[in-house]
Amino acid sequence: MSQSDDYTPGEQAGGKPKFASDIYAVGMIGIQAVTGLVPGQFQEDSNTGEIIWRNYAQVSDEFAEVLTKMVRDHFSQRYKNATEALQALIPPDKTIVIPPPPPKKFPTKIMLGLGMAVAISFAGGYIVNQVLSYQAALTATTKKAEEFLKQGNDKLDKRDSQGAINTLTEAIRLDPKFAEAYSRRGVAYSNIENNQKAIDDLQKSVKLFATQGNNSASKHDQGRIRDYLKDYQGAIALYNESINLDPHDARTYQNRGIAHYSLGDKQAAIADFNQAIKINPNFAIAYHQRGNSRSDLGDKQAAIADFNQAIKINPNFAIAYKNRGYIHYELGDKQAAIADYTQAIKINPKYSKAYHVLGYIHYDLGDKQAAIADFQQAVKLYQQQKGNEELLKIAQDRIRELQK
After folding, report:
1. Of 117, 124, 224, 390, most Cβ neighbours within 10 A?
2. Which secondary-structure segment (H or E) carries 221?
3. Which of 222, 247, 272 is the last residue of a domain?
4. Can you say whether residue 98 is alpha, beta or left, with left for phi > 0 and alpha for psi between -120 and 50 degrees?
5. Are residues 332 and 243 in the same domain?
6. Does residue 279 form part of some domain?
7. How many domains does the structure of the chain reveal?
8. Is 12 part of any domain?
């Protein structure tokens, strides 16, 4: 079949064209414009014979319905003529004046043919206009959604999980099929220990990634769901599948490393973090996670070096300051610890756990009033944040003990 045949409906190919036959060609041109695919690339519904195109384009349901009706398999289900199609395309509050048909001295058949050609030309032109306008609006919306994604990621780095949720929700509002935004919002929900909402978001990202042909990312997020359900072996199996599909995704190695870490296999975790860093030398989170593993294995100086590198790459990495501060505290350098916790709080004033630990450090230094103030701020923030009930009680108990 030639490429032009892809724009030809069955009745016309069979030598029995109708007025609705030209509508089919105009509709196919419109669908090609909004999907970027040529007609021969679409599958057909085996039961109805209709082409399957809707999942490949982001257009309004109303516009999609018009295009779908224009390319119905049977001519009787299409618009009867171009004028009818044009009426469906043009909003009720707009009018388009179609030039009058040729003078009556022309034979009737020629008049009808030319009139139809004019109407088809207007319909085709209107579709192209609609497509161009839509694509321009879509590009602007996509860019704005991507800006919100970047802002959300920045807030995640600052440990401002609620702020990240709010920002990523805006990205999703602009683009309801933005798989990466659902995926990152899932991380934010997990950070505030709302695992059900985290899983809900990841289930959406899994489906969207799969629909969009990104099977590696889909497997990756399935692995994260297993992580949140504490099925770490199941998570590792899915991360393995994701890596087989895309061995160059540093994030998958990093998350598999976290799963190994959760199972207590720190060496396997470090091996995965090493690979993530090899793929992406600027992967601040991988340095941070490797620092945690090295700290647990007793190599405090190597851990500090990893946290230093994470902070060098991302100066707003609040949790890296917090964890480096804790190692300074363990090593007896309380002033360095205070400096790191203070910086973490400066980056994220709502960092409740940083205030909590800072309270212990001030207490160890004999500054009871500063310790009480830190614990009180931690309590205030815990009360505003969900999922911290146990830590809230501990901080309240410390305040009561110090006020005796």
Report:
1. 224
2. helix 215-228
3. 247
4. beta
5. no
6. no
7. 3
8. yes
Examine the pLDDT at 1 and tell me if it is beyond 80: no
Q: Does the pLDDT value for residue 115 go beyond 70?
A: no
Tokens of 306: 């990893």
Higher-confidence position of 362 and 38: 362
For residue 303, give the H/E element and its range. helix 300-313
Neighbours of 115 (CB within 10 A): 18
**Are both 187 and 96 inside the same structural domain?**
no
Average pLDDT over residues 282-309: 97
Q: Which domain holds residue 23?
A: 4-135
Q: Indicate the pTM of the whole model.
A: 0.64
β-bridge partners, 377: none
Tell me the per-residue pLDDT of 83-94, one tens digit each, with 9 for 90 and over: 677 677 665 544
What is the distance between the alpha carbons of residues 92 and 292, in angstroms, rounded to a whole number?
A: 63
* Tokens (6 digits) for 157: 């780095």
Least confidently predicted of 40-54, 234-248, 300-314, 364-378: 40-54
HSE of 315, CA atoms in CB hemisphere, 13 A: 1
The DSSP output letter for 385 is S
